[in-house]
Design a protein that fits this description.
23% of the residues lie in helices and 48% in strands. With 186 residues, it is of the alpha+beta class. The chain has one domain: outer membrane lipoprotein receptor (LolB), chain A. An 11-stranded antiparallel beta sheet has the order 6-5-4-3-2-1-11-10-9-8-7. Helix 1 (2-11) runs parallel beside helix 3 (104-118). It comes from Parazoarcus communis SWub3 = DSM 12120. Residues 1-19 form the signal peptide.
């Protein structure tokens, strides 16, 4: 569930404009101006226990500041909605709801992701070391967890973009599993 939340939260709503000066500050200022949006995704998950990777496709929606939706179409239809402190998963006619405050490590992780989407560098820096490489036309943001709770789950998050849009999110989990999400505008 955490793997889905991270990929989902990081992959929607991010856009970047061209700028002469480029770095963490510029990227965060650009992200702070974002109100949200809809994108298509293809996520490939590489799990040590499986010989072949798993692939999922669907749509992601971000409505600033706190609503995130992941509508998976394949291989199984499911919807995950994060609204404020509540995470709701709908799959095969069954609904599961949890409050993030009951899962402090997940809540800290999600708060960090929301900080990324909101361009809140100070809040993000509480849980991650940030670095940006490239330039506005092709950039990469690396998030390395400094929070011990997050580092138990995630080793690194890498977000790549070019020409004003995020086009890939890679998550390396602490156990060695990883996921790569390709993102395209709708």
């Amino acid at each position: 569930m955490i793997r889905y939340c991270v990929a989902f939260l990081l992959s929607i709503g991010l856009s970047v404009t061209h700028a002469a000066e480029w770095g963490v500050d510029q990227l965060m200022r650009t992200l702070a101006d974002n109100g949200g949006g809809r994108v298509r995704f293809v996520e490939t998950r590489y799990l040590a226990i499986l010989e072949q990777p798993l692939t999922a496709t669907g749509e992601l929606v971000y409505i600033a500041p706190a609503r995130l939706e992941r509508h998976t179409e394949t291989p199984v239809k499911e919807t995950m909605v994060l609204d404020g402190d509540t995470l709701t998963l709908n799959r095969e006619g069954k609904t599961h709801t949890l409050r993030l405050r009951d899962y402090p490590e997940v809540a800290t992780l999600i708060d960090s992701i929301r900080a990324t989407l909101a361009g809140d560098q100070q809040r993000l820096a509480r849980s991650y070391a940030l670095s940006v490489s490239g330039q506005a036309s092709r950039w990469q943001l690396d998030l390395l967890p400094s929070d011990p709770g997050i580092s138990k789950v995630v080793s690194r998050i890498r977000i790549g973009g070019r020409h004003g849009a995020v086009n890939e999110v890679e998550i390396l989990q602490a156990d060695g599993d990883r996921s790569v999400m390709s993102i395209t505008p709708k």
